[in-house]
Amino acid sequence: MVNLKYLMALLLCSLFFMISCSNNKKPKEEDFLLIGVQGPLTGSIEFYGTQSLGGVELAVKEVNSAGGINNKQVKVVALDSKGNAKESLITANSLITSGVCAVVGEPTSGAFLASRSAFDRHMIPVISPGATAEGVTEGRDYVFRTTLQDSIGAPYLVDYLIDKKEFSNYAIIINTADSYSVSLGNLFRNQLIKRGVSVVVEAKIFGEPTDVSNELKSLRGKAIDVVIYSGFHPEGAVILKEMDRQGIKGILVGADGLQQAGLTPLVGDLAIGTTYYAGFSPNADNDLVRGFNMRASADDLISDDLSAQAYDTANIIFSVMKTTGITDCSVESRKKIKTGLSKVKNYQGIAGVLSFDRDGNAVKAPFISEIYKKDDDSYSTIVIE
């Protein structure tokens, strides 16, 4: 009898142990819906990648806390491309083999152009939250973008500067090492020529210079209202410092690569007056934007066009996955996600109302913002158009 009681106790303990082990079992990758994120998380333009990743992570946190997607939690697979073409293709192939359902792709045009075809060939939907160059989605069924196109933003900004600010004398600076800068510079130049205004001088820089004194000599002493730079904020900061040193007048103007959050930490007051177009403004008079600003701040995330558009990108993917009943990342599931994305119309996001055209481009209105200094000596932007 004693032996029987001992045996029963032993069996109960063993059963309890097995249940406990089962409850503590770690979930496998297949228990999640995997979302890839690709971008520069280190290097000179890491700001673009970390902001994009932060927007995605905020969206994932919110969707998981609300129960996930079709009773499954979402997990982020984030890889650092350093923002260059070679690393972008390497990380794209790693994401492809990791079994992701979809990818929030490179936030810069050059890197996105390098990796987009790999995702398309493997039938994995990829959406860039920041690539603005021409032609990045055309001819590829699985490639999309949620950012404003330069072909819309650049002419819109030029028209504003001519019609509303009445500026008539322009200089253009192009980074010849960057195909995106060359393309964007052409868009600005073409619109200026179309409007019949004076391009006083064109200057060229190369790569990531720390000294552009020789390159900007041609601007010195000229009557210039606007200096257009078709590139990113690290070079924009070097240009602003040299403009100040050489006494070159005129405001700096460009695309979202000159955004305040990246520029003002590098040059402070020299950035005041810098004007740029983007697909989002954290200072838009909108309750959705104000709510996003609060949630982003709570996560130590800067509210800007990159974080907002990446947040919208992730939520658009999640919305499509929910409505199409996605519970795995198989080829068939990815086909359904692609088809659902192609049908997105009038999506109300943080960065405005968005639809995808037949080529996967975002159809949306631009914001024009100007950098200014607040009474508390911090920097911000005001939406001026």
Give an account of the 3D structure.
The protein has 385 residues and is an alpha/beta fold. The chain folds into 2 domains: 29-147 and 285-364, Response regulator (Rossmann fold), CATH 3.40.50; 151-278, Response regulator (Rossmann fold, 3-Layer(aba) Sandwich), CATH 3.40.50.2300. 43% of the residues lie in helices and 19% in strands. It has 11 helices and 15 strands. It has helices spanning 2-23, 46-65, 85-98, 109-121, 150-163, 179-195, 233-246, 260-267, 287-298, 305-323, 331-342, and strands at 32-39, 73-80, 102-104, 126-128, 143-145, 169-175, 198-205, 226-229, 251-254, 275-278, 347-349, 352-356, 362-363, 367-373, 379-383. A 7-stranded mixed beta sheet has the order 7-6-8-9-10-14-15, sandwiched between helices. The protein has a 5-stranded parallel beta sheet with strand order 2-1-3-4-5, with helices on both faces. β6, α6 (179-195) and β7 (198-205) form a beta-alpha-beta unit. The N and C termini lie far apart (89 Å). The mean pLDDT is 92.
